[in-house]
Amino acid sequence: MNQSNNNFLAQLPSIDELLNHELVQVTKEEYGATALTQAIRQATGLFREQFTQLDNAASLTRNEISEEIINNALAQLQTLHSTNLKAVYNLTGTVLHTNLGRAPMPEEAIQAMTSVARGASNLEFDLKRGKRGDRDDHVAAWICRLTGAEAATVVNNNAAAVLLVLNTFAQRKEVLVSRGELIEIGGSFRIPDVMKRAGAKLQEVGTTNRTHAKDFRDGLSSKSALIMKVHTSNYKVQGFTAEVAESELASIAHEAGLPFANDLGSGTIVDLSRYGLPHEPTVIESLNAGADIVTFSGDKLLGGPQAGIIVGRADLIKKIKANPMKRALRVDKLTLAALEAVFKIYTDPDSLNEKLPALRLLTRDEVEIAETAEILLPAVKSFVGTTYEVRVVDCRSQIGSGAQPVELLSSKALSISPVEKRGRGKSVGRLSEKLRSLPTPVIGRIMEGALILDLRCLEDANHLIRLLNADIHVDSTK
Ligand SMILES: *Cc1c(COP(=O)(O)O)cnc(C)c1O
Questions:
Q1: pLDDT band at residue 120, thresholds of 50, 70 and 90?
Q2: How far is residue 20 from each of residues 34, 36, 249, 346, measured CA to CA in Å?
Q3: Which pLDDT score is estimated for 83?
Q4: Which helix (H) or strand (E) holds 413?
Q5: Residue nearest to atom 15 of ligand 1 (CA)
């Protein structure tokens, strides 16, 4: 570094001077003096370090230098203050997408959550008796009414529900499960591992593709505590297969004096075929077949908040609730408020497919999705520019979260592909990155060198159109 550089650096604006600059003053309210000072100090340090590499350093005026430092500091603070967890457009075609937060919640549930979030609530307070209450009471009666179960309790998610059931009934004992049902669900939930953590020993029964009643009878021992069925929600065993009917499993368990538990996973409380969707096993069916305990998720087909719902025989639910682990797995007031609102919607099955967003999206008419595609098309075309071709295409959406993995729903998508075939993969990658960096990120899926935006979950295109129009178009060649 030469002498003139040293002189120049000595004359850099002071921290105080920068803090008093009008560009900084207007943001004082938002960021606070401490954060601003820290950011300005950092940006000044960075300017000093990088100063020698600037071609035009000597020609910069003092005010230009101040602005350069300030802009860097403010950009830093803006990034820091931007929300990390935010709303996105789920145009992946998977309606209940685990990585994108699963079920969209009904307005009633959102309102119920805000009203208890703002202040105190009767979460564990019995208003009639003026005494301590049980948080489960806000939803247990609803669940029982809707499923015909004797009793119910709610925990953090279905993984927690399974863990709690196993720990309550089978600690240091054996649980019989068919080999064909030793599932892994995304996010490393594996039945054998959960079993271990719950302190239970897995007694595998039958083979991967065929399990018979005799296998279960042979697997019973004095150490057996539970027979469990796990809904193979994210795959289907096809071909030469055999599984034991739920009612038969229930009888085998009951003859041995054991409870029979069924982990339904997605578990719905209505018959989806009524709305033109593939049939998923319902909680009621499972209870009627003789299950003593049924576990299912709140944010899969039920269409509510993340939760694990456990229903079944009153004496067993009582034991589950008495397990100290329940305290660690319990849900908060927001979840309970949302669940209560969701269950209320279920009281009128005729309007469920309009009022429950998850079901509304799953049953959305293909013609309506096609209309959305046509409305969105011009905005997407001008956003991507002439180096990409945009077309409306037929596609298939899936329910997601493990429900009916092999059944698909007819839908419409915008397919965006680079006109230039060379370097296609890279330009599609760049385009999807650009869409992901929008203020409300747009998430699609890449298939055969094209970006596919499945419009099943886009009910109102207007906001997205404004978002796209506000942004400059992308050039696939850059
Ligand atoms: C999804 C699923 C779970 C886990 O449920 P979460 O609510 O994600 O914890 C457990 N068992 C089955 C069969 C599932 O499909």
A1: very high
A2: 13, 11, 76, 59
A3: 87
A4: strand 409-418
A5: 265
Which residue's alpha carbon is at the smallest distance from atom 12 of ligand 1?
265
Residue 268: DSSP 8-state? B
Q: Which positions ≥6 away from 383 have C-beta within 8 Å?
A: 468, 469, 471, 473, 474
Residue nearest to atom 3 of ligand 1 (CA): 265
Other beta carbons within 10 Å of 405: 15
* Distance (Å, whole) CA 107 – CA 113: 10
Please, is 460 exposed, middle or buried when counting C-beta atoms within 10 Å of its C-beta (0-12, 13-18, 19+)?
A: exposed
CA count, 13 A, side-chain hemisphere, 247: 4
DSSP string, 361-400: HHT--HHHHHHHHHHHHHHHHHHH-TTEEEEEEEEEEB-B
Region label for 373, one of left (φ > 0), alpha (ψ between -120 and 50) or beta (otherwise)? alpha
Question: In the block, which residue shows the tokens 């085998």?
Answer: 252
Cβ count within 10 A of residue 344: 15
CA separation for the pair 262, 286 (Å, rounded): 7
Encode pLDDT of 336-393 as tens digits.
Answer: 999 999 999 999 999 999 999 999 999 999 999 999 999 999 999 999 999 999 999 9
Selection from 354, 312, 306 nearest residue 330 by Cα: 306
**How many Å apart are CA 333 and CA 69, to the nearest integer?**
46
Q: Choose among 241, 223, 243: nearest CA to 231.
A: 243
Residues with CB under 6 A from ligand 1: 157-159, 162, 185, 189, 230-231, 233, 263, 265-266, 297, 308, 401-402
Q: How confident is the model at residue 462 (pLDDT cuts 50, 70, 90)?
A: very high
Give kind and range of the element (H or E) at residue 132.
strand 131-132
Q: Encode pLDDT of 396-414 as tens digits.
A: 999 987 666 666 899 999 9
Are 99 and 53 contacting, i.e. CB atoms less than 8 angstroms apart? no
From 164, 197, 297, mutation site for ligand 1 pocket: most ligand atoms within 8 A of C-beta: 297
Nearest to 203 by CA among 230, 238, 169, 174: 174
